[in-house]
Amino acid sequence: MAMKLFLIQKRFLATQSTSSSLSSSSSSSFTVDFLVNSCGLPLKSALLASRKLNLDQKNLRNPPFVLQFLKSHNFDETHISKLIERRPQVLQSRVEGNLAPRFKFLIANGFVGKLLHDLIIHHTEILTSALDSRIKPAFYLLKSFLYCNENIVAALKRSSRLLTADLNVNAQPNIDFLRKEGVPVNMVAKLIILNPGTILSKRGRMVYAMNAIKNLGLEPDKTMFVRALSVRLQMTETTWNKKIEVMKSLQWSEEEILRAFKRYPQILAFSEEKIRSAIDFYINTMELERQILIANPNFIGFSIDKRIRPRYNVINVLESKELIKGDMKISTLLVTSEKKFFINYVSRFADEVPGLLELYKGTAMRTEKDA
């Protein structure tokens, strides 16, 4: 009798499990269908989105209202599909209680048309972060420094954390500290646009970075100061020291490194591999004097494979054929705009040097030096 009861219970549980599985599968299938047919998502995107969203066919109240609301604000099919790909859960939002107040605030503050679409699509946190305690303070703070909404959107593209962080904890105190240390309003604005996340740094890091940059002799009211401060705040002390050691291993003294950093702070923001490969190419392949790099550290920021190597190969070929003089200034090779270089050195000699265009594109002809 006990065995019979056990088998009945087992069969019942198996039936329940199968029923639950079928129900779940049916719900998932409906969700995917809705995302494809009503929201315009490609099937692959819909399958991925369905992992974060479970729509009930029998209680499909919010999604149609959400779509209607978005369309009423001129979101087209492309806008809607991009938004839902990024945050599928928006379909379950309450229109009146959640979406409408946020849109009303943004529109009242000048975010209309493309600005509104870009802001919502690329910063979906704005649909979930607290309106009164997070979003409004963030916009008021940014507006006080950045003035125009285009700058606000540009800043948020670099750091959406501004929409979710409590700005009273770090952002406002950091801004007050920057102003106290002599950084003018326009430079604070430049720092926020350049790297908005820096104003969310912990106070201790901000103070340390400020003192470090000041000790280099940079002036707080200059653009290079905020660029250097931004780079310094992006890395830990360990990472900073590693970058310094990499440069030293390439025969740069610490004084030379810091001199280059003052001229072009981004030099120490690059990866160790980027720094090594760039300096190696300039010194060992192009036989460029190290002092030229120290005086022009921005050269290290150029892409070796996409910009410098193709130009170097073209100039080598043209010099070997005596089509140009061999004493060309390095600035001509490295700094000239892409368009000007192409016109003056590639298309100009393309008929005289078969394969020159391919060489410039990196698909054919290699100079003996590069072979």
UniProtKB/TrEMBL annotation:
Pfam families: mTERF. It comes from the Eukaryota. GO terms for molecular function: nucleic acid binding. InterPro entries: MTERF (IPR003690). PANTHER family: CGI-12 PROTEIN-RELATED, TRANSCRIPTION TERMINATION FACTOR MTERF2, CHLOROPLASTIC-LIKE. This is Mitochondrial transcription termination factor family protein. It comes from Populus tomentosa.
